[in-house]
């Protein structure tokens, strides 16, 4: 068993589930979480970072267990008052959640980097796992649809993912610089690079598109292991399956393998997709069949165990 | 009885009580409220306007009846989460109250004036009385104390008015321009200019110090009527009496009269201060003795009636 770090790339809810599992099976100094910031946006002058915050709340034990994002026991006086004031109410900001947005926005205006703010927040919430936004520059996903180009949160929240997707762009990505703490971590012989079961198009791809990062991950000695977010032809949560279909692809873990081909060494797929193993293996990708549906905390821990076990085996080869 | 407008200059809680009374005894188009903005400040990047907001919440029927400021039925999840994040917690921002601050800050950043924002907010809250911030420029009171110079909210909230006051400055006031809607209202033969029972030093004086405004009020044909915020040698609420004593003055309605001498035509004092009437009259100020403690809504309405009745009489002379 190696003692290097596990670097997990994550979007929101699904990714955060595996990250939580990993935090249970690894000492905290062996886990580094890289979060997608392409969903981040400014709303009423507040910088909102949905994926990073979901990881924060999950690791802090503050996440709403039912919806997977936001804070448990949240109150909604702000939204209710905002509506009465005639404000835009398509994006829900919980009262407690607002503290993070207000504090972050204030620190960013003072000149702190997002990485620094997330480090401060993590320390105050007693999170000892490193959470690294993929970059400190502002980048934003635009979803290209048959109804026109939509900023991600408008597509995702306001339009409820209804428009038919034709493509994506990650605005500002060409000027993004990989998080320097991530670059350092990649240089210190990590044990594994894990692509959490997040949306390949809008959660993982933005991270991979930070200039230089895909090559750094691919060329690292650590195995790159993805966990398929597509199970039995469906996404557990979110629009990944819908997007896949609209982009003209087969909706399956095989398509996930094709999507990540050239980058990943192994793909963990669900038991119900076992029949796809041969086709995936033909792509030169090692397949592990496991239970990947994470309903309970134990499911998260079990999948994390499988992932770390696979990493150790691949590193030993 | 004249049909002109009553222009009321107000700070927070005490002033808002009389303003509420005036809103009951006057048709809405006959009342204009001018609010002190020298207490306004930026907190976590949000523009907070305590006096203006107290007037807004009071006229909208949303004010907390017990404390007089803030919203009734307020929740505090934001502050609780902010504390957990290590944020500064000396200034309380309620969850519902935050909506106003966030919306306003966003509109101001978009280039709207404070006057415009308050107009929009008033419309959405069905307030049909004009609420005019004294000016649209950022101005801020500094309280000079034996412990040094303190921004107003730090003196008022963080230090709970404990430091001994030696003076005040209204930073930025020299560049302030009187609210243009107020200038218009002053030109349309108002019936009265009322100095509400607010703190003379930090609520009313900032308004009077907006360049040109004191002369405009003094030279207007309408009578200028003040209601003493000092009753029986004490302030009903806030540090007015404490400030008066620390500045070496007698703490009394007579001192209020002296403070406003040269500007006001009449002063309404409380029954318990009736013995001061002769001395006040010697200053060339007409004195009305009334009940000025406003515990109930009826008290507010009664004092407003006295004020408007006095204005009508003085206009008739």
Overview of this structure, please?
The structure is a homodimer of 317-residue chains. By secondary structure, chain A is α/β, with parallel strands linked by helices. Chain A has one domain: Rossmann fold. Chain A is built from 13 helices and 14 strands. Chain A has helices spanning 13-25, 50-59, 77-84, 95-109, 114-124, 152-158, 180-186, 200-208, 213-219, 240-246, 253-260, 277-282, 297-316; strands spanning 6-10, 31-35, 41-43, 46-48, 130-133, 140-145, 148-151, 165-171, 192-195, 224-227, 230-231, 234-235, 266-270, 286-290. In chain A, strands 5-2-1-9-10-13-14 form a seven-stranded parallel β-sheet, sandwiched between helices. In chain A, a hairpin with a 2-residue loop joins strand 3 and strand 4 (46-48). In chain A, helix 1 (13-25) runs parallel beside helix 2 and helix 1 (13-25) packs across helix 13. The radius of gyration of chain A is 19 Å and the shape is globular. Chain A starts with 5 loop residues before the first strand and ends with a helix. The mean pLDDT of chain A is 96. Chains A and B meet through helix 3, helix 4 and helix 5 of A and helix 3, helix 4 and helix 5 of B.
